[in-house]
Amino acid sequence: MSEPYRDGRSAGWTLDEHLIFDIGYALPRSAVRGMRRAFTEDERRRVAKAVVAHLRLCGWKFELSAALRGHDTGPGTGPTG
User: Fold this and answer.
1) Could you give the CA distance from residue 42 to residue 37 in angstroms, rounded to a whole number?
2) So what's the pLDDT on residue 1?
3) Cα–Cα distance for residue pair 18/52, rounded to 1 Å
4) To the nearest whole number, what is the mean pLDDT of the chain?
5) For residue 79, how many other CB atoms are within 10 A of its CB?
6) What is the DSSP string of 11-76?
7) Does 81 have pLDDT greater than 60?
8) Is residue 35 over pLDDT 90?
């Protein structure tokens, strides 16, 4: 696996573990008919883990950006700005 990612987002998780979680989370939310009920949570994790392992084997490199701030409209775009 990769080095632990340390920004407080999920203490102790490696970059690969974040990627596996995110892929597994996305699988039942895909636009494929029947995908929501096609896999158990454990099966989604195994599929996501296999995808990450294969992408690494193919030479892909991943990085996790800092957590986003939320739904801020930015400076000067509010009702008074």
Assistant:
1) 13
2) 44
3) 10
4) 76
5) 5
6) TT-BHHHHHHHHHHHHGGGSSSTTHHHHS-HHHHHHHHHHHHHHHHHTT-----PPPP--S---TT
7) no
8) no
Max distance between CA atoms of the chain, in angstroms, equals 52
Q: Are 15 and 63 in contact (CB under 8 A)?
A: yes
State how far the Cα of 81 lies from the Cα of 71, in Å rounded to an integer.
16
> In this model, does residue 62 exceed pLDDT 70?
yes
Instruction: Please report the sign of the dihedral spanned by the C-alpha atoms of residue 54, residue 19, residue 61, residue 8.
Output: negative
With CA atoms as reference, report the closest residue to 21 among 45, 54, 46, 2.
45
Distances in whole angstroms, Cα of residue 78 to Cα of each of 3, 68, 74: 40, 19, 8
